[in-house]
Amino acid sequence: MADWLMAILLGLVEGLTEFIPVSSTGHLLLLGHFLGFQSTGKTFEIVIQLGALLAIISVYFKRLWTLATRWPFDAEARRFLIGLLVAFAPAVVIGFLAYGFIKTVLFETPLVICVALIIGGVLLLWLDRMNKIPAYLDADRYPFRVYFLIGLFQCLAMIPGVSRSGATIAGGLLLGTDKRSAAEFSFFLALPTMGAAVAYDLFKNRDVLDFSDFGLIAIGFIAAFISALAVVRFLLDFVSKRGFGPFAWWRIAVGVVGIIGLAATGAL
């Protein structure tokens, strides 16, 4: 496959999967494994995540601007920002302490990704069919306990294949949120979490970063931005009407196909 086609494909996969509960990292690692793609210092894989992040910022720019300018004198805006920080805090601590193990062991084991995809899909199916009356309908007004516990659930996504959005949404549903607000809060929590993760990855890999393929990185970045923009715009309405079942079945299918592929290539 031509390099530019591979860049487009990987960028589209990043954008399409970053904010739905199927694990963008798992998809990228598995696809990269089977395509034989690996950039020096993971530069390509790190930078294209910024394209997906830019999609969130563009869709929610007005609301983010309101939060940024009104928090000093608006109690509601201040409370939501504090809630985001509370939810973000566990990932900072655990991510910093376990960074080496995550990157050198978990990220290098495709079988772990496949198993995590399947288990996560089964759990998501169970949660989607759970007849639980939601207690919290507005992501701006979750109790701080709920914010913190969702943050702990997010840390499960440090296992590739679990899915950051999937973990936060599942945690929210278990804690009594409705599907729409859980998905929306996952969007907002992505901003500090992904931003910090990308910055830390770039810092840790600063000695081996290679931007010689800037054109390919730019192609992947644009593809990730466009596809993520489409996902963010339609996802809330989709999950309100259809739930998370389609994503759960997709996870299971990808995990099973991945295991078959690993077995066929002798990589198990």
Automatic annotation (TrEMBL):
- GO biological process entries: cell wall organization; peptidoglycan biosynthetic process; regulation of cell shape; response to antibiotic
Please provide the record's keywords in A-Z order.
Answer: Antibiotic resistance, Cell membrane, Cell shape, Cell wall biogenesis/degradation, Hydrolase, Membrane, Peptidoglycan synthesis, Transmembrane, Transmembrane helix
Q: What is its main location?
A: membrane
Task: Name the InterPro entries for this protein.
Answer: UppP (IPR003824)
The record's catalysed reaction(s) read: di-trans,octa-cis-undecaprenyl diphosphate + H2O = di-trans,octa-cis-undecaprenyl phosphate + phosphate + H(+)
Q: What else is known?
A: Bacitracin is thought to be involved in the inhibition of peptidoglycan synthesis by sequestering undecaprenyl diphosphate, thereby reducing the pool of lipid carrier available.
Q: Which GO terms describe its molecular function?
A: undecaprenyl-diphosphatase activity
HAMAP family, A to Z: Undec_diphosphatase
| Family matches, as Pfam families | BacA
> What EC number(s) are associated with this protein in UniProt?
3.6.1.27
At the top level, the lineage of the source is Bacteria
Q: What Gene Ontology cellular component terms go with this record?
A: plasma membrane
Q: Where are the transmembrane segments?
A: 6-31, 43-61, 81-102, 109-127, 147-175, 215-236, 248-267
Q: What's the family?
A: Belongs to the UppP family.
Taxonomic path: Bacteria, Pseudomonadati, Pseudomonadota, Alphaproteobacteria, Caulobacterales
**Full protein name:** Undecaprenyl-diphosphatase
Q: Which topology term describes how it sits in the membrane?
A: Multi-pass membrane protein
Question: Which compartments is it annotated to reside in?
Answer: Cell membrane
